[in-house]
Amino acid sequence: MTWLAIIALALGCFAALAFVLKAPRGGWEAIGAALLLGLAGYALQGRPGQPAAPHADDPSADARGAVMVDERRIFFGAAGAARDPAANSWVMIGDALVRHGQYANAATILRGAVEKDPGNGEAWLALANALVGHADGALSPAALYAYRHAIAADPDAPGPPYFLGLALAGSGRLQAAQSLWQGLLAKTPDDAPWRPDLQMRLGRLNTLVGMAERDAAAN
To answer: What angle is formed at CA 49 by the lines to CA 48 and CA 51, rounded to 5 degrees?
Structure first.
């Protein structure tokens, strides 16, 4: 029921902008894309079942950074313990900075980690995530470069494609994220701790991609 209300609200906004406020017909596609991007962000980050509660003005950058670090560590666990200890210490410092919302400083530290140990996929992923955080969720060329190096360092690691998919979807590249996550899910064991979250997010993304395709076909 929550999704029906959200979709109805999005359609209502489109109708108001297009027909009530008389937005130019040439701008309808941009309006639809903006609404779909908003739906994508909610689908990937929203928690409709969470009880409402009073909160501060804006979500804390500290909280976003902490979630980013904790989610990444779910994928790697203790696997990083075998890496270069010096590089690992740099990753730990970078994580501490990310937890406090200091993404630019974290990226500077994490560049040192990948220079020290270029084969450290977790360090590359931590760097990519810090760059995305610094860009307020946008997938910059530098972040994409780091994600690709994370994948190249360990092609079988699930973390890089998972977070790259998040960044792609957050940047409006829904079909690219969908393709990436479908391939990841096909390789994910049934008992993997991240599988339920991946399935949930992919299901939401599939819905959004279907809506976008139907909207494109109608136009």
So the answer is: 105
The alpha carbon dihedral of 117, 118, 121, 122 has a sign of positive
H helices present in the chain, as ranges: 2-15, 28-45, 61-76, 85-99, 103-116, 121-134, 141-153, 159-170, 174-187, 195-218
Number of alpha carbons in the 13 Å side-chain half-sphere of residue 178: 15
Distance CA 134, CA 18 (A): 34
Q: Yes or no: say if 128 and 163 are a contact pair by the CB < 8 Å rule.
A: yes
Nearest to 136 by CA among 201, 202, 46, 59: 59
Cα radius of gyration (the chain): 19
Task: Indicate the pTM of the whole model.
Answer: 0.69
Domains observed in the chain: 2-48 (no CATH), 61-207 (1.25.40.10)
pLDDT digits (tens, 9 = 90+) for 14-41: 665 555 545 555 545 655 655 565 666 5
| Of residues 33, 60, 51, the one with CA closest to residue 173 | 33
Alpha carbon separation from 63 to 30, 66, 67, 68, 69 (Å, rounded): 32, 5, 6, 9, 10
**pLDDT tens digit string along 112-146?**
889 888 999 999 999 999 999 999 888 999 999 99
